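Encode chain A's predicted structure.
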Amino acid sequence: MGTVIIFALIALLALYGVVRTLRSKNILGFIFGLGAFAVFGWFVVMTILHHGIPTGTH
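Encoded structure for chain A:
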């Protein structure tokens, strides 16, 4: 469960980075930030959907 929390924080920071790069018109930063947000965010969402909160043993 700790990994999911850390990855969720990384996804939120990547989203913040995407917003900042849009304001400064930094295209490369936008692309990498959006990619990081997509990868880490997808991992967090699918882990929560599959295991639930809190994660239980099967």
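The chain has a mean pLDDT of 86.
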